[in-house]
Fold:
Amino acid sequence: MAASRMMFNGVDVEQILSDAEVGVEANLDKSRTVKIGGPAMKKPDLLAEIAAQRKPFLDVLAARNELEAKIKARDAALPAVLDFVKKYDAGITAELGTDPNVKAKYGLPSKKAKRALTAEQTVRKVAKMRATRELRGTMGKREKERVEATGDFTVSVGQTSQAPSATATPAPAPVVQPAPVASNPAPTQPSPAPDPVLQSVPAPTGGDATAIA
Structure:
């Protein structure tokens, strides 16, 4: 239930009564009287009337504070209460059995079996589950296993030291060695023998002259 409030000139009347009580107590002279919708009131009478008007609000405030204290006490006792209920259920069950009708007589509920779904309800449940997972972008184990990233995943990682170049160093050009010189030189052709020189020999005296090579 929503709290009831009454406003006067934009201010809650409860607040006005509280401020009025403080103002009359601090400022109104005891010898002065004030007419409040009827006979004139002196200071004590006016303070008594303001207090009477405030009483319903103060009673609610006191009840609210008391309720908050009782709620805190209840919450603190919940673990002990639950422990007692479990022990009570175990004791009644051990003594009287597990018959739900018997336990109900002692204020104990029984675990309700899950109602089996019809074929149509099962299909509707599965369809709703799949649609919900699609909207949320969630996947099952098998769907996750079928997902594989594609595309270019080249990554450049900075390094503090100069990485060795991946370019291969060209092999040195082969050096052509001169053909080996034979240790025994090839035999030279002998120079042709000079033609024989014909010399004239003086013919002996008294005989025939004969040319001798």
Notes: The helical segments are 13-27, 43-96, 100-105, 119-136, 141-146. The chain has five helices and four strands.
